[in-house]
Specification:
mainly beta; globular
Length: 182
């Protein structure tokens, strides 16, 4: 009996040390600030992670099936991707262009786009806010019941912007105070 207990403990420790995770895949990429991922009817996942900026299609086993990248010199890293229906996703990011007269750096504008389930952008629209600040980066978005979207800013640059389902500007409001949403 005295030899049996140490043998059981040794077997238990050996088994625990040999355990491995179900799967692990390393993929060097940039992800959305919100960490969005959406399950498709096929069982695959549309994730807001891709080299530079974009989305990827990931299998249930963690293999990257396809990545769709967007041009980084004008479109910064995606901030959020939200599913509206099976083949329609809204995303928000920042359009980085134009010169800022105050600092000489590039000016940031909020950008909203529509993706299909393969990550192809069917419609992309950026919005020039009537704001003295040069940094109006997008933070996140929410889809409303009628298919319109509300986007808000980040980094102490609070604004709200509403666009209809065809991404036409409905209204926007820029706040000079610090604020945010939870």
């Amino acid at each position: 009996m005295s030899r049996l207990l140490p043998c059981i403990i040794l077997v238990a420790l050996t088994t625990a040390i040999a355990a491995q995770p179900t799967f692990m895949v390393t993929f060097r990429a940039t992800g959305t600030a919100q960490g969005n991922l959406h399950e498709l009817s096929s069982g695959n996942l549309r994730i807001g992670v891709a080299p530079q900026s974009g989305t990827s299609l990931m299998s249930a086993t963690g293999a990257i099936i396809q990545s769709h990248n967007f041009k980084v010199d004008t479109m910064l890293v995606m901030q959020s991707v939200k599913k509206h229906r099976d083949n329609r996703y809204y995303f928000t990011t920042t359009y980085w262009n134009d010169s800022c007269s105050a600092t000489g750096t590039r000016k940031n504008h909020p950008l909203v786009g529509i993706l299909d389930s393969l990550g192809n952008a069917s419609l992309v629209q950026y919005y020039r806010l009537n704001a003295p600040e040069c940094g109006n980066r997008a933070g996140d978005l929410e889809i409303l019941g009628d298919g319109s979207v509300v986007v808000w800013g980040q980094d102490n640059r609070l604004y709200l912007l509403k666009a209809d389902s065809s991404l036409a500007h409905v209204w926007s409001r820029r706040f000079s105070e610090v604020g945010g949403f939870r």
